[in-house]
Amino acid sequence: MAKLVTDYSNYVAISTTKTLKTGKGKVHAILATCSAAGSGAQSVTLYDNTAGSGNILFLGYLWYNMNCIIILPDYLALKFSTGLTVVTTNAVAAFIATEEAE
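Predicted structure:
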């Protein structure tokens, strides 16, 4: 049985690029919040890569005081093969629930 990872290590702070996983896995939930007004695009981007570039799995834009919660059942889960890197911009922070491959 695969392990669902929901601990603090999957938290991505404001204006950060963070590699959460290397290798295969799935994204089952995306929770993002925009805590302050910022200039320019305020977004959270998930990449199938170990760097903040390459194949985009998800791109979401948020506005001031906006929260976003996306729950993905197994058949809709975002699958990654190289790794999972999350990039947040401006005032956006995110928490990503992932499943490690068996």
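Summary: The chain has a mean pLDDT of 85.
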